[in-house]
Amino acid sequence: MTHIPKQLPAGLYFVATPIGNARDITLRALDILASADVLAAEDTRSLRRLMEIHGLPLNGRPLIAYHDHNGARIRPRIMALLAEGKSVAYASEAGTPLVADPGFALGREALEAGVAVTTAPGPSAMIAALTVSGLPSDRFLFAGFPPAAQGARLKTFRAFASVPATLGFYESPKRIHRTLNELCETLGESRPAALCRELTKKFEEVRRGTLRELEVALRDAPVKGEIVLLVGRGGQEEVSAPDLEAELQRALATMTVKDAAAEVAARYGMKKREVYQKALAMDAKARDDEDPERGRTG
């Protein structure tokens, strides 16, 4: 099909692009890319390649690189073009703009300036993974890339422990094994999960199992490519008194009383104060056992 350039109303157009297979692009997205006065992209090489595949010439139109590292510097230039009444199409490197993508600040600034903002919806790695994961899709939470620092990562994972929704993370092949280990520690080893790799590409793969099963499988078989990790929903889980004590002992070995209580309470959907009091008593007993003189009075 030939996409003949036509006049687009002034405004900012967010264009979703394929996450792998180049044919996963909408006709409307191609129309916008063929017609916009100005093109902006997270990765200009990827957009050029996509346009070449679909026979869309630049015809001398500006193609502006806009990404995390130059956003503050380039955004004024794009805003000036919008103020002149230009139509500007912004394309993510892959998938839907603003989903783990630098387009958010641009969209917000355009809206604050009274610029018309619209979208040509399409592919999203998170939604594609959810579709093939076999996990509940009626409620889900996209958590993006976990923080790099361990303390921040563990805090993030603990915060999601009791969320009654399927969780979605983007992760790199270099860190996925570490992430699975930390999720086992904070969310529980038995949570169902799906590791989705290279979606819509030649070597697409989906591994399903518990968090621990996926972690074990990766010990001797590291993976490559783009990864979406989905984790089954949290919720109330019955726990016996001995199991609760064992969980608290495990947590207290590496955490403060407050953090240990918060993690275990979140995992089992219990009241934080109740678990905190239990953890406090266990911690005090452990200290007394280490120093019998500590608990004596004159």
UniProtKB/TrEMBL annotation:
Q: According to its UniProt record, where is this protein located? A: Cytoplasm
One GO term in the molecular function aspect is: rRNA (cytosine-2'-O-)-methyltransferase activity
Q: Which InterPro entries match?
A: 4pyrrol_Mease, 4pyrrol_Methylase_sf, 4pyrrole_Mease_sub1, 4pyrrole_Mease_sub2, rRNA_ssu_MeTfrase_I, RsmI_HTH
Reported EC number(s) for this entry are 2.1.1.198
CDD domains hit by this protein: RsmI
Superkingdom of origin: Bacteria
Keyword Translocase annotated: no
What are the protein's UniProt keywords? Cytoplasm, Methyltransferase, rRNA processing, S-adenosyl-L-methionine, Transferase
Q: What does this protein do?
A: Catalyzes the 2'-O-methylation of the ribose of cytidine 1402 (C1402) in 16S rRNA.
HAMAP family found in the cross-reference section: 16SrRNA_methyltr_I
Q: What is this protein called?
A: Ribosomal RNA small subunit methyltransferase I
Per the UniProt record, the source organism is: Celeribacter indicus
Gene that specifies this protein: rsmI
